[in-house]
Amino acid sequence: MLSRGPDRIGPRVGAAQPFGPAATITRRAADRLRTGHLWVYRSDVETFIPFTGSTGVAAGSLLTVMDGRGIPLGTALYSDTSQIALRVVSPKSGLPRAEYLAEVRERIGIALALRAELAPVSDHDNSSRLIFSEADALPGIVADRYNDLVILQLLTQGTAQDDLRAVVTEALVEGLGEDVTIWERPDARVRELERLQAPEPGPRFGTPEKTSSIFTINGLRLHFDASSGQKTGAFLDQRLNYAAAARYAHGTALDICTYQGGFALHLAQTCTHVTGVDASRAALEVADRNRELNPHLPAEVDWIEADAFELLRDFETSAKHYDTIVLDPPAFAKTKRAAEGAMRGYKELNLRAMKMLRSGGTLITCSCSHHVPLVEFTDVVTAAASDAGRRVQVLEIRGAAPDHPAILTLPETSYLKCLILRVS
Q: Active site includes 368?
């Protein structure tokens, strides 16, 4: 039922909707959805329309998204706390919960089939991202495999619910077999933003005492502990970038923000000496255990607990030089507002690294913030090269491994940038 207002035509708040609860959004947001984007920010929601007989819209519910004229644009999961208020899950309006759960099961099967093609399990590689949220048409759901452990994250109010938890677990077991143990381990920061209660600890399927695993990535053996409270340092999105870095690395190497040694141990295959730097002692302890798992690596490897910026300043002052340097910092820009400060951080790291590289040295520099697009990241590295007075050749421009597919109409899924450069 429509009523004409002074400025626009829109649904009358409280009007009965044949497709259930709904939200009307701004023209700007509607235009984005029509081009294939999947998010509606809170600032773009104009009104909420409860289902007939209801007094409000429940957090985590499925809402029909409509433009200002009342034209349905699809069904979305609603969060009453996140800045991303609506995540579109279907182009169909009024999608019932039961039908949504059936579609989740089907989409998980498709996602697992894609991983079997892109990242098949082998002795050389038995880890991959199985489900990548919006990239697999499964917003708010992420699953990673580490050998026989699967780590599940349900990241929104609409997905962190028992009915969906059961469907996802069943679909994963059906697709992977009963030899896996599935742990749900939510991201603490996301849980706080979404105001989600912590799920009951323990596995959702499999062996209760199974909390850790040794998995392989590019033939290297690494530790994973589901009960440690930390993320894995062998970031699966960097899998192919690790291998590429090893191909170009030589001589003495410095790995800044090594975390649990992902890049450092790959560099140890082709370098003579590798130094891994991180501010987390706990992470470096795992990195050292990972080094012990791979005694065949020819390089000498040591670890330094330090702040990356302070250490690079000290090393530059003391005229330390390297043949290979990796920069893989955490996301400097976790919000769009922080992007300007992030650019200053990226420039400083790259400037100091370029000054420390010997002529003909290799720089592998990364950014994992989707708020810093590839063009802007490349520009800031270019500015660092200019200030350092170095001639820099681009050998490769890389992104995330293919088990982390990006969606063309959702630029936020193209978050990882990895430049491999030769510095003269």
A: yes
